[in-house]
Amino acid sequence: MSVQPKELFGPEFIRDPYPTYAWLREHDPVHRFLLPQGMPAWLVSRHDDVRAWLADPRLAKDLERFLPPDALPGDHVRDVLTKNMLASDPPRHTRLRRLASKAFTARRVQSLRPHITSLADELLDGMGDEGTTDLIDTLGLLPITVIYELLGVPRRDWEAFRAWSVLGSDEQSTGSEDFETSTKSLKEYTQALIADKRVTPGEDLLSDLIVARDEGDALSDDELVAMVFLLLLGGQETSISLIGATVYHLLGHPEQLALLRAEPERLPSAIEEVLRFDGPAMNASMRFAVEDIEIGGVPIPAGGIVFLGLGSAGHDSAHVPDGDSFDIRRSASKHLAFGHGVHTCIGSALARLEGEIAIGRLLARYGELSLAVHPDDLKWRPGMHFRGPAELPVSYRVEPR
User: Fold this and answer.
1) Residue 6: inside a domain
2) Which of 122, 137, 217, 238 has the most CB atoms lying inside 10 A of its own CB?
């Protein structure tokens, strides 16, 4: 039986949002609530509604068009948050994605497999044969290293770059002085990196983005900065959360872990099941009604803010039988973890590849793996968009041969 909903985005909800989502799908599938800033918004929770409206142009993404002028304080914040694909609508979105896609092909992603595997093995070597570690801090370095290398960030700058980008992706700090300071530093550093690569291009994604052309069109410097910010957000945080959530749910379902160890060829299906069951994006980024609309019979006025519940959609038993159960044997379902329509995540292939390699190498090396704290004591990422463990202490040991 579904339960009365917890406070949306409060501590209990952040730890486990799915009972609340179940109640909303049954009783209030287009739920009106207030954002922390006091503005009304609507949360859509049923799969079919979420999928349909992800691709409906009557919900727009342009932050500058719909948000009040003071909602994004500071020129630096406005630049990185409003000039990227995620906050754009066609035709600007179409142009940005077309140019980015030229440097982010499936062939390029697959060519990274040997190198990502080598990086994963290096990180596991550093963990040794047994011990206890926070996997978010150790194996979570894999997607960080991959995206920094892809962008061509010099290794000497990684620590500072990581500090700026972590704060820039922290929903709780948005609008704060620290957020603006870090965003300014990230923007200025990226501008200097772009200027350097215009003179001396390298074998990296940022260099490719700089020279990407489509009938004479190219990305401006401001658009390149915003693209870097978006790639950092997607290339680090979502992949780290996917790796953490996969380990967490496998350890919480020992029979599933045993099955995966016995049949490692199920690993791609296991990653897809985690994406459906507890993916790294709890809600799609906010959208705005361009006109008066109705979703599920609920009227939403023009300019109304709408959140499409990706996490809730994955548990909707009207689409996935027994959607609240975790089962890696499940046939690959068309989940919405990476979105749907023109805004489908451009980095989804890389996230899947990193998840498969990280989990595959971890399980191949450590025959003994367990959570080092009680599940109720884990901290989860706060906020309305990202989902995943903020920490994942595990104990591990190589089985004697």
Assistant:
1) no
2) 238
The number of folded domains in the chain is 1
Instruction: Say if residues 307 and 44 touch (Cβ distance below 8 Å).
Output: yes
In this structure, are residues 80 and 187 in contact, taking their beta carbons and an 8 Å threshold?
yes
Q: Is the pLDDT of residue 59 over 60?
A: yes
Is 146's pLDDT higher than 90? yes
Whether residue 4 is contained in a domain is answered as no
* Helices 141-151/221-232 angle, 10° precision: 160
Q: How many residues does the chain have?
A: 401
Q: What is the C-alpha R_g of the chain?
A: 21
CA distance linking residue 311 with residue 10, whole number of Å: 16
Q: Kind and range of the H or E element at 293?
A: strand 293-295
Neighbours of 317 (CB within 10 A): 13
Give the residue numbers spanning the domain of 109: 11-397
Please check the confidence at residue 377 and state whether its pLDDT lies above 90. yes
Pairing of strands 59-60, 287-289: antiparallel
| Beta-carbon contacts of residue 360 (< 8 Å; ≥ 6 apart) | 264, 267
Please indicate, yes or no, if residue 347 is contained in any of the structural domains: yes
> Closest Cα to residue 276, out of 217, 233, 219, 328?
328
| 74 within domain boundaries | yes
Instruction: Give the SS3 label for residue 60.
Output: strand
The tokens for 370 are: 């367990």
Q: What is the pTM of this model?
A: 0.92
Q: Which amino acid appears at position 360 of this protein?
A: G
Query: Phi and psi at residue 173, in whole multiples of 5°?
Result: -100, -5
Provide the pLDDT for residue 1.
Answer: 43
Domain at 210, CATH number: 1.10.630.10
Which token pair is 65? 């068009």
Q: 139, 219, 227, 135: which is closest to 186 by C-alpha?
A: 227
Asked if 16 and 24 count as a contact pair (C-beta separation under 8 A), the reply is no
The pair phi, psi for residue 296, each rounded to 5°, is 55, 35
Q: Which helix or strand (DSSP H or E) is residue 44 part of?
A: strand 40-44
Please state the separation of Cα 109 from the chain's center in Å: 17
Phi, psi for residue 235 in degrees, rounded to 5 = -80, -20
The answer to whether residue 327 scores a pLDDT higher than 60 is: yes
Average pLDDT of the residues in 165-182: 65
Burial class (CB in 10 A: 0-12, 13-18, 19+), 134: middle
- In the block, tokens 């990581």 appear at 162
